[in-house]
Please model this.
Amino acid sequence: MALQPSNLRNALASIIDHDSGKDIVTAGMVKDVQADGDNISLEIELSSPESPLQERLREQIESAIRATSLECKEVVGSIQISFTADTRSANERIREETNPLPGVKKIIAVGAGKGGVGKSTVSTILAVGLSRQGAKVGLLDGDIYGPSMTTMLGLQREETIAQDNFLLPFEVHGIKAMTIGKLVEPDKALIWRGPRAHSAFSQLALQTKWGELDYLIIDLPPGTGDVPLSLAQLLPLSGSVIVCTPQVVAQDDARRAVRMFQELGIPILGLVENMSYFVADDGKEYDIFGRGGGEQMAAAMNVDFLGGIPIHPDMRVSADTGEPLKNWKINDTMSKAFDNMCSNFISSAESTTLDPPTLSIS
Ligand code: ADP
Model:
């Protein structure tokens, strides 16, 4: 009779991995075990393809299996051991192994120190603009207390479809989108507190069939209170974007938002200054709220500046009519500003790696 799987497992568990100090079963190094009659083949994963421990491990595994087979009086024929290596960085490994959305390359939250600064507008322009540049993008309206994407994306007539316990995202304007606004009456969501709000947010993020995405942009609730803070911790975020307006009086709020993400150990990809300036029909630019305040604050806080988004009545109209792509038709200066913000976002997102949090907030 061949060796029982439990005996084989015990034999392997008697071998200690030199690097982790754990046995090779607990350390997750045994990736595959196959028995074909008396013959056994194993796949063992090492931390590096050139590991000097390979030959020693091979001998240890063979002798542990043969010793067990003698003890159990079972015959073991050949023992084939193949070695593989996990070449991902420790950081990538942690993210991939804890990522509940493995098809999504980067989950990015958009936050703001307070409401009304254009966080949802910037999230939408970012999502649609990244898709215009060829990225696969999802947009989650995570502002569960004031969802605005039904209007901003023109989803009023779209039907909500569920498939195998998953919601299908709305495919509009070149992106995939989901909002709580299509699932409950907005005034019902407003009264949710604590765990109920958390579970609505998680379900919306995790039970939507996003498929393969380069970026999932999450429009967080405004502010730095308990709700945005705890929602920002529910998903493995790769980064965050902060939206502010130029006025000096708005900068304290933006600073608080920067600190919130820093304290959570979530990299800040950059700051966007919305309502930065007005571009008139003749192309002349007017600084209404004191353009540049956001850029200065970003520099002072050592955060990248992703760009300034002009203020224009047609932007309000495209938001109200659910036609975000029309923003690119307003004038050349504005479409360049949107594209510039998206390009800066991509450079920042692709060059940022997630460092382990320095401070954890529970
Ligand atoms: P927040 O998400 O921060 O609460 P919104 O994105 O919902 O803010 O914007 C609030 C209002 O301001 C909306 O009516 C929106 O259309 C308008 N708005 C935002 N940014 C601009 C802009 N740059 N130009 C004109 N209107 C804007």
Summary: The CA atoms of residues 263 and 359 lie 6 Å apart. The pocket of adenosine-5'-diphosphate is lined by residues 112, 115-121, 148, 222, 274-275, 309, 311-312, 315-316, 319 (CB under 6 Å). The domain at 5-87 is CATH 3.30.300.130 (GMP Synthetase; Chain A, domain 3).
